Amino acid sequence: MGITDFEDMKVISRHTRELLGIEEPLFRRTITLPYRDNIGLFLEQKGHTGVKSDSLTLSEFVQAAGLQDYAPKVTAPEKNEALYYTEP
To answer: PANTHER family this protein is in (predicted)?
Structure first.
């Protein structure tokens, strides 16, 4: 691409992360936080070169790394918990 200015590289990286919907990797991230999003970790792994990296898929990566699918889970209310509904 021929981009040599580091500030321009940072802007392009930020916009790419926004388009892909991934969070910015923090270099001083505490270990008490949960794993980063799966797609961000996957793309970080795909950044390496080689046959193994080229053939790696997201589902293979998630399974091999033992990551969970972080889709929101809907939980049902407890049996004894009443649902309250008020008319508008």
So the answer is: STERILE ALPHA MOTIF DOMAIN-CONTAINING PROTEIN 15
Residue 85 is given by DSSP the state -
Sign of the dihedral through C-alpha 3, 8, 13, 15? negative
| Residue 66, phi-psi category: left (phi > 0), alpha (psi -120 to 50), beta (remainder) | left
> CA 16 to CA 1: how far, in whole Å?
15
Task: Give average pLDDT by consecutive 10-residue segment, the chain, 88 residues.
Answer: 91 88 75 76 85 87 76 50 50
- Structural contact between residues 17 and 23, judged by C-beta atoms closer than 8 angstroms: yes
Q: At what angle do helices 38-46 and 58-65 cross, to 10 degrees?
A: 100
**Domain locations in the chain as residue ranges:** 6-70
